[in-house]
User: What shape does this take?
Amino acid sequence: MEIIGTITEVLPVVEGESKNGPWRKQEIILEYGGKYPRKACITLWGDQVLGDDSAVGKTADISYNLESRENNGRWYTDAKAWRCSLS
Assistant: This one.
C-alpha cells in the first residue's frame, strides 16, 4: 500500500534488544486527504527512522504494510513502513 501526506508530528525513537539483536522504531503522524484530511500513525523501523522532528511539515511518500493481531479478545492494527521518501 502507498500513502502520500504531510508529516505533522514525529514521536521519539524507541530502541530495544530482541533475540535477533538490537532494534529501533519511530512513529510519525501523517495527515493526508483533501477537503476533509485524516491522520494516520505510521511506524518506521531500522534505517527508516528519522531521528528528530526536522521532517515536520514535509511531504512523505510512504509504502507500508498493514498488520493486525489479537490479544485477549481485542484487535490491534499496525501500519509498518518499508519505504519512506521525503520531499
In short: The chain has a mean pLDDT of 93. The domain at 2-86 is CATH 2.40.50.140 (OB fold (Dihydrolipoamide Acetyltransferase, E2P)). The longest strand covers residues 59-71. The two ends are 19 Å apart (CA to CA).
